[in-house]
Amino acid sequence: MLKALRVPLLWLGVVLVLGSSHFGTNSTGPWIVPALNWLVPWATPRELNGLHHVVRKLLHLTEYAILARLWLQGILAWRRTTVRTAAWAALLICVLCAFLDEAHQSMLPARTGSVGDVMLDCLGALLMLLLLRARYELREPAPIAVPAD
């Protein structure tokens, strides 16, 4: 049972660690801003800080998209269920994780919790699940229509 959920649980742990005070803006800035400066040497310090903010928000989308995919695959491997049911369960897990992560961040001195980040996290998960559901539904054969008499 738990074997199918090992990877989703591991990534859930990674997501929660990324929400710790070790990965706040002040902690990631010293290594992301120089990398951005190397990529965009003509950018002003203000633009680099703005890009740093954008990168951090894109990472929110990405980490929760990955989380949603892993949970969908894990649930489908763990239980015999429909893709639709598994997608709803994966989305619920991602929403709960996003809420708990931001609630935890609101209690840390070096971080701030944000409703906007919860929404961004949920958007990343939702977009991935919509994409995967469409992909799964394309693979499944359509039911044969029986003509009415």
Protein architecture, described:
- The termini are far apart.
- The chain has helices at 6-18, 25-39, 45-78, 83-105, 115-139.
- The model has no long low-confidence stretch (mean pLDDT 86).
- The chain is elongated, with a radius of gyration of 19 Å.
- The protein is built from five helices and no strands.
- The chain has one domain (2-138).
- Helix 1 packs antiparallel against helix 3 (45-78) and helix 4 (83-105) runs antiparallel to helix 5.
- 74% of the residues lie in helices and 0% in strands.
- It is an all-alpha fold.
List the helices and strands and how they pair.
Blueprint: H1 6-18, H2 25-39, H3 45-78, H4 83-105, H5 115-139
Could you give a short description of this structure?
The chain has 149 residues and is mainly α. It is built from 5 helices and no strands.
What structural class should be given to the helix and strand makeup?
A: mainly alpha
Number of strands: 0
Which residues sit in consecutive blocks of at least 5 with pLDDT less than 50? Answer: none
Report the end-to-end length measured between terminal Cα atoms: 47 Å
Q: What proportion of the residues form beta strands (DSSP E)? A: under 5%
Gyration radius, in Å:
19 Å
Number of domains: 1
Query: SSE string, helix = H, strand = E?
Result: HHHHH
Helix content: over 70%
The overall average pLDDT, rounded, is 86
Number of helical runs? 5
Largest sheet: none
Shape: elongated
